[in-house]
Structures are given as structure tokens and as C-alpha cells.
């Protein structure tokens, strides 16, 4: 197993108003901990099977949002059944993490109700795991396929040796199949909940600002927003949006606590935001 410590560029401090019962260095620790074996196994499978061909097939399979019809709140309830096997920090259902993230944002940005909703919805794409997808095709940090893997990718030094794209000359150079500064919208990211939820938001015409779509689409792209890798693929628009992705990340990361929120008490407020920005039955 890799001894690489990948998370060296965390936000300097937790956001104001966020309870912080543990030290910052204890988050995203990929060198030790009771969940490490599970986490490493998930990333090994991800880095073996996430290829250009695989991502293209999954985009085609899910791009028309024809899997199911349900409301955003119904999708959130499904996450009661999901524990993220790539997360070294928590071992409780993902639905609680959604409320923790949203409430952290609500305390720090009380005037941005759309941002509160982003906190609640950012991981809803993980319902893919409940549609039958393996967790390595749903959770975890994302990375571009079709070009050389950068050093900050989690466990990147020990998990890609069986990925055929790393031996394909079309995909194994710094730029691979991309042009310099082509923009992340033109880059194929490893398939998972970020891209899927972005497609659901777009297909169902969520009336959220552009920043919301961007945050959801790239919040798991840690090699970029936490480490500054892959900048050679970024457009000016990507760099303009980067501070928003980092702002979401503060709450996505530092609100993880074993003390779980009172979901029943919070539900009506977030239902009002769903009714405002993405009401009714949605296509998934």
C-alpha cells in the first residue's frame, strides 16, 4: 500500500461557526486509520477500471436521466442506505453528511440560500450505488482520464499499474488527448457522482446559478482544487470558478462529525429550497 500522504493543501482553517472536534491533519488521512483497507481497495478498483472507454460508456448510459423518477428529497432519503467506502473520515450514512455540509454553509453564508441547497445536494449523485453501480464508479476523488495521472491523485503511485490507458500512447502524456487550456468542460473526468449529479441538474433545469453547477461537478476533483494539478487543462473560466469549489470544500470536509444532525427538525427548511430551485419529481 502507498505511503503517500496526499492531502497537504487543505483549507487553512475550518469555516467560522463549524464545530471542529478533531485536528485538521486527521481529515483525509490516507496513511493510517481503521477504514484505510476499505478505502485503499475502493481506489485500487477505481484506478484500474476508470478508462476513457469506460467513462464514455457511463456518460452515454446515464446522460438521458432515464433511470428513475423521484424528488430530490426522495433521492436524499435513499442515501440513508449508503456509506461511502472511499471516505477515511466517517462511517455513517451519506444523508447525514448532506445535512452537516448544508448547515455549515447556512451558518457561514446565511444570505445565500442557493448555496445551502448545494450543500444538501452535492452528493446526491451517489444514488448511482443504489442503481447497481460499484462504489469505485460512484465515490472518491475524481481525476481526468485520457492524460497522464498527476502525482497528487490519491494512492496514484500504487494503483494504476493495471489500467490499460496508462500504457496507451494516446493517453499517457501530459496533455494526452486534450489541447492546452481546453477547459475542464471539455475534459473527461473519471465517472462518478459529481458528473452524474451535474447531468441530473442540467437535464432537469435546476434554477441555480452557474456556480452551483460548477461546484457540484468538480467538488471531488481534489488534485485540482486542493493541489493545483491539471492547471495546464484549465481555462480562465475554470480559474474564476475555483474559489467557489474551494469554498464548498471547506464545508464538505470540515463539517464531518460523529454528532449527527436532527434531520426532522431541518427537513422543512430544505424542502422549501427544493421547492424553489428544483421542485417536483425529477428525472434521474
Top keywords for this entry?
single chain, 284 residues, mainly alpha, 2 strands, 1% strand
Provide the β-strand percentage band: under 5%
Beta strand count:
2
Q: Decide which structural class fits the backbone.
A: mainly alpha
Distance between the termini: 37 Å
Strand order of the largest sheet: 1-2
Main pleated sheet: 2 strands, antiparallel
Q: What would you note in describing this structure?
A:
There is one protein chain. The protein is an all-alpha fold and 284 residues long. It contains 10 helices and 2 strands. It has helices at 36-49, 52-62, 72-78, 94-108, 113-121, 193-203, 210-218, 222-225, 236-254, 263-277; strands spanning 69-70, 282-283. It is globular and about 55 Å long. The termini are far apart. 44% of the residues are buried. Mean pLDDT is 88; it is low at 1-12 and 17-22.
Concise structural overview:
This protein has 284 residues and is an all-alpha fold.
Secondary structure blueprint with pairings:
Blueprint: H1 36-49, H2 52-62, E1 69-70, H3 72-78, H4 94-108, H5 113-121, H6 193-203, H7 210-218, H8 222-225, H9 236-254, H10 263-277, E2 282-283
Antiparallel strand pairs: 1-2
Amino acid at each position: 500500500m502507498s505511503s503517500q500522504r496526499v492531502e497537504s493543501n487543505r483549507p487553512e482553517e475550518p469555516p467560522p461557526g463549524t464545530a471542529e472536534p478533531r485536528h485538521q491533519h486527521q481529515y483525509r488521512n490516507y496513511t493510517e486509520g481503521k477504514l484505510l483497507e476499505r478505502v485503499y481497495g475502493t481506489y485500487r478498483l477505481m484506478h484500474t477500471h476508470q478508462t476513457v472507454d469506460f467513462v464514455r460508456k457511463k456518460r452515454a448510459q446515464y446522460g438521458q436521466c432515464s433511470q428513475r423518477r423521484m424528488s430530490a428529497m426522495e433521492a436524499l432519503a435513499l442515501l440513508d442506505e449508503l456509506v461511502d467506502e472511499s471516505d477515511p473520515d466517517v462511517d455513517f450514512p451519506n444523508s447525514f453528511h448532506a445535512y452537516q455540509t448544508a448547515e455549515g454553509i447556512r451558518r457561514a453564508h446565511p444570505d445565500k440560500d442557493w448555496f445551502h441547497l448545494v450543500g444538501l445536494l452535492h452528493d446526491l449523485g451517489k444514488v448511482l450505488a443504489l442503481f447497481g453501480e460499484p462504489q469505485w464508479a460512484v465515490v472518491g476523488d475524481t481525476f481526468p482520464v485520457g492524460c497522464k495521472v498527476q502525482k497528487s491523485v490519491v494512492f496514484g503511485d500504487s494503483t494504476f499499474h493495471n489500467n490499460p490507458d496508462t500504457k496507451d500512447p494516446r493517453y499517457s502524456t501530459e496533455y494526452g488527448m486534450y489541447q492546452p487550456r481546453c477547459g475542464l468542460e471539455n475534459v473527461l473526468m473519471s465517472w462518478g457522482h459529481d458528473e452524474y449529479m451535474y447531468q441530473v441538474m442540467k437535464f432537469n433545469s435546476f434554477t441555480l446559478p452557474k456556480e452551483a453547477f460548477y461546484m457540484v461537478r468538480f467538488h471531488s476533483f481534489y488534485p485540482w482544487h486542493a493541489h493545483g494539478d491539471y492547471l495546464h487543462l484549465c481555462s480562465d473560466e475554470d480559474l474564476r470558478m475555483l474559489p467557489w469549489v474551494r469554498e464548498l470544500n471547506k464545508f464538505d470536509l470540515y463539517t464531518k462529525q460523529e454528532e449527527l444532525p436532527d434531520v426532522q427538525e431541518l427537513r422543512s427548511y430544505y424542502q422549501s429550497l427544493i421547492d424553489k430551485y428544483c421542485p417536483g419529481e425529477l428525472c434521474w
